[in-house]
Amino acid sequence: MSGAAASRAPGRTLVLASTSPRRRELLARIGLTPTRVAAPEIDETPLKGELPRAYVARLATGKALAVDRAADEVVLAGDTTVAVGRRILEKPADEADLRRMLGLLSGRRHHVWSGVCVVGIDGRPRVRVVDTVVAFKALSPAEIDWYVASGEGMGKAGGYAIQGKAEMFVRFLSGSHSNVVGLPLFETRALLSAAGVPLG
Q1: pTM for the full model?
Q2: How many domains would you assign to the chain?
Q3: If I label 43, which of 35, 78, 117, 200 is the partner at 20 to 30 A Cα–Cα?
Q4: Cβ(117)–Cβ(60) under 8 Å?
């Protein structure tokens, strides 16, 4: 059975609570095509004093529960953020904010946190949180200028996309690479399997 057919098997249809093309591409790597894609609308502002682990778990759960779900549907949602220590780096507001973020990441390690939530046919959310450690080389002003000018970092948590040009800045990575892209596949597959979604 093909991945697309498997995700449409009777009794378990997969809804992706995200419009991110990266997450759809990652699901395709494990042979899954959502039968439906929904755009959850929730406030993604971190709470005062909220730690990155709690933040991504809360947002992933909130996104999954914000989507209307039919009785035979399993909903998958994820949230990924970059953190330097306890500091959460959201999507840059503008080029100046992007430069600030790249300066923070330059020459040091940071954490990429993802929360993955699956709501099964029982309606109960199940969540896993994944942490990947990434280290950037020391970035020169010219490298920062070049990356900002590329436009790739805008709209990305932490101001960069590892699946793009920024991968050349990575000198060390410990953990899940797919997590840094936006969806940790090992944990996602385990959650979907437990929810009864047929996998290839």
Answers
A1: 0.90
A2: 1
A3: 35
A4: yes
